[in-house]
Write a structure and sequence with these properties.
By secondary structure, this protein is of the alpha/beta class. The protein is built from 14 helices and 15 strands. A hairpin with a 3-residue loop joins strand 4 (175-180) and strand 5 (184-189). The radius of gyration is 26 Å and the shape is elongated. The N and C termini lie far apart (63 Å).
Length: 448
């Protein structure tokens, strides 16, 4: 639909028209958005049948002619007052922006659907940075809104309609986690921070294979063959590393080596692995996602509960997007009671340090288990730990692969199969134990 202000413009001498400044466009958008929101609020809401949730797609379609009407009203008023009016290009920008603000992802859409963007950071409305793949540092970009108040209102609109349950983002609820359309993960916090802050992670949903990671320099050929054989041999694997090191990407690549005949259950705070996007490769997948409590403090479902629940669902493999709490114990149980080939990710600065993390997480669950018992679980459950790191040149590489040895009665011993001597990709170092070598040989004689 196009604007219809041409007749009105013929009755008034137009001022000099130029492309409007970013600030002027944002003010016009704010005015139109407010008027459209007032009009829509008087209409009966459109609800998805049987859910009680707003039908955002239909609401957006219904609002389109209203948005254009308000753009026309704005142009008419500006002409009457002798002000600069928006160009047709400005009008298109305003229409898309207002619709996105009310029913989409607002000004964030300029970056969320850019495949080079990995993260978006907002440290107050006028401090917006995006980090791009391969870039050395985040890039400062123009503001998304005109004030911190508008920033909070934008997150509030998302929180009210985009979760499984309606949530609030205000002084009494100063933090919120959301999964936005497209699988983007948002965390917002206010009041306890100097200004409202938003962090959005942009998952990489294209199919990623181990060969792709080898071409990117994350792996080399011997490591690729080894990890492929490890998956087919149904070894239990923990992928560890710091934030942004590519743990989920490597996990996803390894999961694409899992035979289509197997039933895989994934458990995540926010869906990132996305195996159901490839039904021809993974026809028997169940994706479980945690759920936050609603505004009454009810209805929350934790990683611990989902991990415990999935063991009743006859999985061949259990996959946790990230272990960071008491669910660690149930993950070890899944790995050691017949669900061989299970995997998870975990934050750790080193492969051998993963066991300390697991000890702490299990202790958080108040299980009453001593360190010796936890170590026994760990030795019998985990076969490999794969460590990732981001190098100074921003490359993500595997810097260590360790075998968890089972030939001790106390503590945890490791055999470092691939090792790095510095800021570089790991290379072969030690041979696997006979036990591990026998398992690898079943799936691939060239694994080592």
């Amino acid at each position: 639909m196009a604007s219809t202000h041409a007749d009105a413009s013929q009755e008034v001498i137009k001022p000099n028209i130029s492309q409007a400044s970013s600030g002027k466009l944002m003010r016009w958008c704010a005015e139109i958005r407010s008027d459209v929101a007032d009009i829509i609020s008087d209409l009966d809401p459109l609800i998805i049948p049987g859910t009680g949730r707003p039908d955002t797609s239909s609401e957006g379609a219904r609002a389109e002619p209203i948005i254009w009407d308000q753009i026309d009203n704005l142009v008419t008023r500006l002409l009457r007052e002798g002000e600069v009016i928006p160009t047709p290009e400005d009008e298109d920008v305003m229409f898309k922006r207002v619709r996105a603000d009310l029913f989409g992802l607002g000004g964030f859409e300029d970056y969320l659907f850019d495949p080079t963007v990995e993260n978006i950071f907002v440290n107050g409305y006028d401090s917006v940075l995006v980090s791009r793949s391969g870039a050395g540092q985040p890039e400062l970009v123009p503001p998304i809104v005109e004030s911190d108040v508008e920033l909070v209102e934008l997150v509030n609109r998302w929180a009210a309609r985009m979760g499984r349950t309606e949530r609030r983002f205000d002084m009494s609820n100063p933090r919120v986690d959301l999964r936005l359309p497209g699988g983007f993960r948002l965390h917002a916090i206010m009041e306890v921070s100097h200004r409202p802050c938003i962090t959005i992670r942009c998952p990489y949903h294209r199919r990623v294979a181990l060969e792709d990671l080898a071409q990117m320099g994350t792996l080399d050929s011997p490591m690729l063959n080894f990890l492929r054989a490890a998956v087919l041999a149904r070894l239990n694997i923990i992928v560890s590393g710091g934030t942004g090191t590519g743990k989920t990407t490597l996990l996803r690549a390894m999961l694409h080596e899992v035979p289509a005949s197997e039933r895989v259950i994934t458990i995540e705070d926010t869906r990132e692995i996305g195996l159901t996007d490839f039904p021809e490769e993974h026809p028997n997948v169940v994706e479980l996602e945690t759920r936050q409590e609603n505004s009454e403090g009810a209805g929350g479902i934790t990683m611990l509960e989902l991990t415990r629940e999935c063991l009743r669902m006859s999985p061949d493999r259990v996959v946790l997007g990230e272990v960071r709490g008491a669910e660690a114990l149930y993950m070890l149980k899944a790995m050691s009671q017949g669900n061989d080939g299970s995997m998870c990710t975990l934050h750790s600065e080193s492969a051998v340090g993963v066991v300390d993390r697991v000890r702490g997480y299990v202790a958080e669950g108040s299980s009453g288990l001593g360190t010796a018992v936890i170590d026994g679980f760990y030795r019998n459950a985990v076969d490999l730990v794969v460590q990732l790191r981001v190098l100074p040149d921003r490359r993500r590489v595997v810097t260590s692969i360790v075998e968890v040895q089972r030939d001790s009665d106390a503590g945890v011993r490791h055999n470092e199969l691939f090792a790095s001597t510095g800021d570089e990709l790991a290379r072969r170092q030690m041979n696997p134990s006979p036990r591990l070598m026998n398992r690898l040989a079943i799936s691939n004689e060239s694994a080592w």
